[in-house]
Amino acid sequence: MIGAGLALLLAASPAPASPAAPPPATLEQASPREVHSRTSASSARLGEPLEWTIEIKHPPAERYQFGAPLAEGTWRAEPLGCTRVEAGAEATTTCRLRLALLSLGAVDLPLLSLSATTPDGPRALDVPGPRLTGNGVIDPAVPSDQLKLKDPAPPVPLIVPSWRLLWWALGGLALLLLGWRLWRWWRARRRAGAAPPPPVPPEVRFAARLDELEVERLGEQGRGREHWFRLSEAVRDYLGAVTGLNALELTSFELLEALERQPDPRLTLAPVRAFCETSDLVKFARLPADGRACADGIAFGRELLARTRPAPVAAGAPPPPPAPATPPASGGPA
Prior knowledge:
By secondary structure, this protein is α+β, with helices and mostly antiparallel strands. It is 36% helix and 21% strand. Among the domains are: 34-135, Immunoglobulin-like (Sandwich), CATH 2.60.40; 202-308. It contains 7 helices and 10 strands.
C-alpha cells in the first residue's frame, strides 16, 4: 500500500520545467563619427504629423538603414526611408520618420534601433527617442467655467425646385454613351477585315519606352518613384523577352536566382542586381530619387539594350534560326 501511494504521489507531481531558451544575442553598437537627432517640433496636437530626423556621419565603408520598427505605444511612427550622401572621406546618412501623438501630455519615445553594415560585420545603432508633448484642441490653461461654447447652427433647408434639369442631364449622358458604343462597334467592324499589324520587336519597344521616360524627366519634377515604377516594368518586360523568363511575375530575388541558374553570356548579374536593389528601395521603401538617379536608371537600360540587341541582318543573308523556346519560370509577383 505504501508503495502504491508513493507511486500516485510521483505521478501527480508536476514535471520539471524545461530550461528557458537563452536570450537572442545582441549586436555590438556601431561607432559613427557623429549622430544628430532632431524633431520638427517639440509639441503637437493629437494626430498632427511630426518629423523625426536622424543624421549620421560615418566612413563611406559603413551603411545604415532602418532595423527593428519602433515599439508600439501612444504614438504612431512611419519610416520614410534613409538617404546617403558621400563627400570625400565622409558619408552622411539621413533617416526620417513621420510621427503622430495619440495621448496628451509628455510622451517619451523609446529607443530606435538602426541596422549598420560595417567592415567588422553587422552592428546596431540605438538612437534615444525624443520627448514630445501632446496638446489638446482646447487650451488647458483656461478654467472650465470661462470656456464659451457656441450655439449650434440652425438647420439649413435643401430646396430642389425641379428635377427637370437632372433628367435632361441623364438623357444627354445616355445619348453620349450610346453614340460611343456605336462608334466602337463600327471601328471594330472596320478592323475585323484588315490584317493585324506586325508585332513590334522587343528591342524596339524597349528603346521607345526609354526614350519616352528620358523626355518626360519625371525625376526633376519630384516624380522619381513613378519613373522607377515604369522603368522597372520596362526592364523586366525586356528581360523576359530576351531570356524567356516570366520576369514581370518574379520578385527581384527570384529573378536573380533564375538568371544564375540559366546564365546568359550577354548579361552581367552585378549591374542587374544593383538595378533591382535600387528599384525596390525607391518603389517599396520610398527612397527619394532625383533627376540624377533617374538618369542612372535609364543609362542602365540603354547599356542592357546595347548588350542584348540582335545584330542587324545584312541584305540577302538568310535569317538566323529561331532560338529554342524556354519555359517561363513560375514565381510570385515582384
